[in-house]
Amino acid sequence: MQFLKDEPHGTAKLFFLSSAVWFVVGTSFGLIDATHMAAPELLGNIAWIVFGRIRPMHTNAVIFGFVGSGLLGAAYYMLPALLRTPLYSERLGKLSLWMWNGAIVAGSVTLSLGHSQGREYAEWIWPVDIAVLLALALMFVNLMLTATRREEKILYVSVWYVFGALIFTFFIYFFGNAVWNPGTGAIVGIPDAILAWFYGHGIVGLFLTPLAIAIAYYVVPIVCRSPLYSHTLSLVGFWTLLMIYTHIGTHHLLQTPVPTWLKVLAVSGSIGMIIPVMTVLINLWLTMRGRLGYIHADVGGKFVMAGLVWYILTCIQGPLQALPTVQRVTHLNNWVIAHSHLGVLGFSGTIALGGIYFMLPRVMGRPLYNKRLADVQYWLVLLGMAGFFTVLTAAGLIQGNGWLNGETVYRILPEIHVYMVLRASIGVLLWSGAIIGLYNVIMTITRTPSERLTK
Fold first, then answer.
1. Which residues make Cβ contacts (< 8 Å) with residue 75, sequence separation at least 6?
2. pTM of this prediction?
3. Least confident range of 280-284, 400-404, 406-410
4. Residues 6 or more apart from 171 whose CB is under 8 A from it?
5. Residue 213: its H or E element
6. Do the beta carbons of residue 416 and residue 437 sit within 8 Å?
């Protein structure tokens, strides 16, 4: 069958293409979402794009479609390269690809029709959940069988991060979506809230983060033409991430009747996340020390470097906003939305783009179609993310301080309206960058070498 064609790096190529497509789709959903916030009456009352439906369509398309597909495509390229053996089965890889994309399409369509489990990042209904779990299981089996046939005895840290991400994501998705309860995808009461944020926080920290770090550990030494500073430090970062990140989701529930011991564990764990984050960043910084010129000369390396800078900011802000005194102002407002964009788009999304631009030319065996277009996308994403973060942080501080001082919602909304207009305007930058990226990826894949030479 053509869609399961056995070809070298075919799975990685199609995951990269999927990521580029979902970047356009996800930002389109986000732009509609932002338009609702700036001008609620503008788009009318079209049922399948009302705010309550388009918002989870946006978050899931970006997390699983754009960022997830880009990171998984990189994993399918990196592991065979690092293990010095071909992928066990390109057909199995493509089966997981189509199942993954089918789940995202089905999830988006069912959400637009009003079918939702109503839980953060876990809105997809039960059949979609099963498809996601099956896709993850197929990916793990394929990559594990590749690892068992490897010619390279030493497992580089990127391999550890990829397998850690696949294993942990499968289990947090299973438990976080309460798959054993198909009717609601939830349990009841406070335990359900704890479970929901165990999943909601974990899908960023144990799915996106390990895969993004795996790409950084792969790309940075190659671009810098320098060996990794310390393999030992890289494994310290790996194990501390897995040990600490699993129990910090409850810092989203400090204002609820969750047991105090769990709140203390979540807050202290949030602060403790500085350990794995700084371990990774220090290790990579020492690897690229004195060689930043190489980073900025390479399109993929430049994206990865920008993602690492956003990672620093994300993981300074995260522990800070977990503190109860800070959270009195920052919780349940646009500050949190700014932080989530910082982590998903700024950190892991930008690194996913770096992985695509670094690996796709190697997959295709020819240069990127247009490096200048990639540079334009880089600046659109960078400026768009910086603007998004600034505008939403400002709006969040206005909301938080207003509510803390006893202001009513209807008095605060006019104050933040200009920020919502700016948010929608900045969204156009990101949407434009996504379209440029999709065009560049498609042309890199479809144009033959002879066409490129005559251009």
1. 139, 143, 162, 165, 211, 214
2. 0.95
3. 406-410
4. none
5. helix 209-224
6. no
Q: Considering its fold, how many domains does the chain have in total? A: 1
**Average predicted confidence (pLDDT) for the chain:** 93
The DSSP element (H or E) to which 224 belongs, if any, is: helix 209-224
pLDDT (average), residues 344-372: 96
- Report the alpha-carbon distance of residue 166 to residue 136 in Å, rounded: 7
pLDDT tens column, 128-179 = 999 999 999 999 999 999 999 999 999 999 999 999 999 999 999 999 999 9
Six-digit token string for 210 = 């390990």
What's the pLDDT score for residue 448?
A: 62
Between the alpha carbon of residue 258 and those of residues 78, 192, 297, the distances in Å are 41, 11, 50
- Helix locations, 292-341, DSSP H: 292-297, 299-322, 324-330, 334-341
Candidates 25, 96, 122; CA nearest to 66 is: 25
What the block records as the tokens of 266 is: 């979540």
**SS3 call for 117:** coil
In a domain, 454, yes or no: no
Q: What are the DSSP calls for 28-86, one per residue? A: HHHHHHHHHHH-TTTTTT-GGGSHHHHHHHHHHIIIIIIIIHHHHHHHHHHHHHHHTS-
What is the crossing angle of helices 299-322 and 260-272, to 10°?
150
Q: Which residue has the tokens 């930058």?
A: 429
Q: Is 116 within the bounds of a domain?
A: yes
Tokens linked to 141: 């089996």
38, 420 contact by CB (below 8 A): yes
Distance CA 305, CA 288 (A): 10
Which residue, among 341, 359, 328, 331, has the nearest Cα to 430 in the 3D structure?
A: 341
Who contacts 177 (Cβ-Cβ below 8 Å, separation ≥6)? Answer: 117, 119, 122, 124, 126, 129, 185, 199
The CATH number for 152's domain is 1.20.210.10
Q: What's the pLDDT at 396?
A: 95
Please check whether residue 53 lies inside any domain of the structure. yes
Task: Label residue 368 left, alpha or beta by phi (over 0 means left) and psi (-120 to 50 means alpha).
Answer: beta
In a domain, 453, yes or no: no
Report the C-alpha gap between 385 and 407 in whole angstroms.
Answer: 30
- Range of the structural domain that residue 263 is part of: 2-445
- What per-residue confidence (pLDDT) applies to 449? 52
**Encoded tokens for 246:** 């699993």
Return the number of other C-beta atoms located less than 10 Å from residue 183's C-beta.
8
